[in-house]
Design a protein that fits this description.
single chain; alpha/beta; Rossmann fold; six-stranded parallel sheet; 6 helices; binds flavin mononucleotide
Length: about 190
């Protein structure tokens, strides 16, 4: 079972990047073939249709291919102003924008259609970025993803990890595992 994991932050000490590491480790332990990417490793400009008309950037094509190849994704999103960050919006907008004239990639939802997606968030605040999820989920549905009903918002993130980047609380680990289990379960069934 191939699973793509990424966080919607490029910040060095990002809680969501830490959470994505935990997700990737746990999913590997559960037997998934995990690809854990960092969005900072992709050179993706702010979306601009004039720029796109001159050619979709190579790293956008890489992200399109990567997302296409993985039937399951888990996204760890920060919360900015009760929504998700521009980094995620920009990334997903590029991924879902058709490559005009390309016989394969002119399908706007080729990368995202039928993907089972688990959504987690982390924030130093008490709500754990839960409100970001309420905006991210409709976006994912719009690009024809199947969003796992089990989600998790890690609150008080500054106290949630130990020095090795592991989650301290067993309850938090169980919640993260529940999302992973559901995503892998649903993804296996959708592929039959
Ligand atoms: C512009 C901006 C808006 C923010 N708005 C919220 C918010 O609405 N709710 C919240 O819990 N945290 C908010 N935060 C704090 C982020 O949760 C915090 O910076 C967090 O560490 C970002 O995620 P990261 O650690 O994965 O980079 C905001 C931060 C910024 C920069």
């Amino acid at each position: 079972m191939k699973l793509l994991v990424f966080a919607g932050s490029t910040r060095l000490n990002s809680w969501n990047r830490k959470l994505a590491h935990v997700v990737a480790d746990m999913a590997r332990t559960s037997g998934a073939e995990v690809t854990h990417i960092e969005l900072a490793d992709f050179d993706v400009p702010m979306y601009n249709a004039d720029l796109e008309a001159r050619g979709t950037p190579p790293d956008v094509m890489k992200l399109k291919q990567l997302t296409y190849e993985h039937p399951a994704w888990i996204i760890c999103t920060p919360e900015y102003n009760a929504s998700y960050p521009a980094l995620l919006k920009n990334t997903i907008d590029w991924i879902s924008s058709p490559v005009k004239g390309d016989p394969v990639w002119n399908d706007d939802f080729r990368s995202s259609r039928g993907k089972v997606v688990g959504v987690l968030s982390a924030s130093p605040g008490a709500l754990g970025g839960l409100r970001s999820q309420s905006h991210l989920v409709p976006l994912l549905l719009n690009i024809h993803c199947w969003v796992a009903p089990t989600n998790y918002a890690l609150g008080r993130a500054a106290d949630a990890f130990d020095a090795q980047g592991q989650l301290v609380a067993d309850a938090a680990k169980a919640k993260v595992k529940a999302v992973i289990d559901e995503v892998l379960w649903a993804s296996q069934r959708l592929q039959r």
